[in-house]
């Protein structure tokens, strides 16, 4: 049974987009199975972003977020290949449970004022 995953790559910013795509094709070829010949569901190139802290003496990284489906047994080899590639500064693979977080409304000033009145009335 295939599971849904999401991976975030941070590539070296010296790479061009074409070079990044070549690396992605090589990584994603490992995910293909007879059960899932097209494992990639979505690819988002976020582009070059400033890193929060230097990674491997780099201050800027090229971000790519990919959603895919594959068998769990294939993840070990997939992650091993990513770790061996020197152009990838960092990566993170997580299980995509498919649930989108519910929007939470921040309390307005009126809401906090109403709570203060309610607390005074209780006293």
Verbal overview:
With 123 residues, this protein is of the alpha+beta class. It has one domain (3-99): Alpha-Beta Plaits, CATH 3.30.70.60. It has helices at residues 17-29, 75-84, 109-122; strands at 3-12, 40-55, 58-70, 88-95. Strands 2-3-1-4 form a 4-stranded antiparallel β-sheet, covered by helices on one side. Strand 2 and strand 3 (58-70) form a beta hairpin. 13% of the residues are buried.
Features:
single chain; 38% strand; 123 residues; Alpha-Beta Plaits
- Please state how the strands of the largest beta sheet are arranged side by side: 2-3-1-4
Quick one: overall form?
Answer: globular
Query: How much of the polypeptide forms β-strand, as a percent range?
Result: 35-45%
Q: Care to count the β-strands?
A: 4
Kindly report the name of the CATH homologous superfamily: Ribosomal protein S6/Translation elongation factor EF1B
Which series of helices and strands comes N to C? EHEEHEH
| Backbone structural class | alpha+beta
The CATH class, by name, is: Alpha Beta
Give the low-confidence spans: none
Report the average pLDDT across residues: 83
CATH architecture: 2-Layer Sandwich
Radius of gyration: 21 Å
Largest sheet: 4 strands, antiparallel
Distance between the termini: 59 Å
Number of alpha- plus pi-helical segments: 3
CATH topology: Alpha-Beta Plaits
Helix fraction? 25-40%
């Amino acid at each position: 049974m295939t599971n849904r995953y999401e991976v975030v790559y941070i590539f070296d910013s010296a790479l061009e987009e074409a070079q990044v795509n070549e690396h992605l094709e090589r990584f994603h070829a490992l995910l293909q199975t007879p059960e899932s010949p097209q494992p990639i569901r979505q690819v988002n190139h976020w582009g070059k972003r400033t890193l929060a802290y230097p990674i491997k003496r780099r201050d800027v990284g090229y971000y790519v977020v990919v959603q895919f489906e594959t068998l769990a047994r294939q993840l070990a080899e997939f992650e091993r290949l990513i770790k061996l590639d020197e152009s990838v500064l960092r990566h993170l693979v997580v299980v995509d449970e498919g649930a989108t977080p519910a929007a939470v409304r921040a309390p307005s000033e009126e809401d906090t004022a109403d709570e203060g009145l309610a607390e005074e009335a209780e006293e």
